[in-house]
C-alpha cells in the first residue's frame, strides 16, 4: 500500500513480527501439554461429503458479515484520508513521488 498509493505503514515489520510471535506462543504451549490420543489411528477418517471443513455458515459469516464490515471501514478510511487528518506525517509531501524520492535519497 505504501509503494502503490503513498499510504504510510501503520506498523513496522519488526512490530508485526513481535505481535505474530507473541500471539502464537500461547496456542503452541497449550498444544505441548495436550494429552496424547492412543486410538487416533484406529478411528475412521471423516466423510468428505458429510463432514465439510468449510460450510455455508462459515462462508456467509466470513464474506457476508465480516467482509461487509471491512469494506465499510476501508471506504471510511479512503474517504477521510485526504481531509488533512494525517497532515502531520512527513510522507504527505512525498505522495505520488515514490520513484523520485527513492532515487534521490
Radius of gyration: 23 Å
User: Which percent range fits the helix content?
Assistant: 40-55%
- N→C terminal distance: 20 Å
Q: How much of the residues is beta strand, in percent?
A: under 5%
Structural class: mainly alpha
* Overall domain count: 1
Mean pLDDT: 78
Order of helices and strands: HHHH
Largest sheet: none
* Stretches with pLDDT under 50, minimum 5 residues: none
Instruction: Give a count of the beta strands, DSSP E runs of length 2 or more.
Output: 0
Subcellular location: Cell membrane
Signal peptide: 1-16
Pfam families: Cation_ATPase_C (PF00689)
GO molecular function: P-type sodium:potassium-exchanging transporter activity
Give a structural overview:
The chain has one domain. By secondary structure, the chain is mainly α. The mean pLDDT is 78. It has 4 helices and no strands. It has helices at 2-5, 13-32, 56-80, 98-104. It starts with a helix and ends with a helix. The chain is flat and about 60 Å long. InterPro entries: ATPase_P-typ_cation-transptr_C (IPR006068), ATPase_P-typ_TM_dom_sf (IPR023298), Cation_transp_ATPase_P-type (IPR050510).
Name a few traits of the molecule:
ATPase_P-typ_cation-transptr_C; 105 residues; Cation-transporting P-type ATPase C-terminal domain-containing protein; ATPase_P-typ_TM_dom_sf; mainly alpha
Helix and strand layout, with pairings?
Elements: H1 2-5, H2 13-32, H3 56-80, H4 98-104
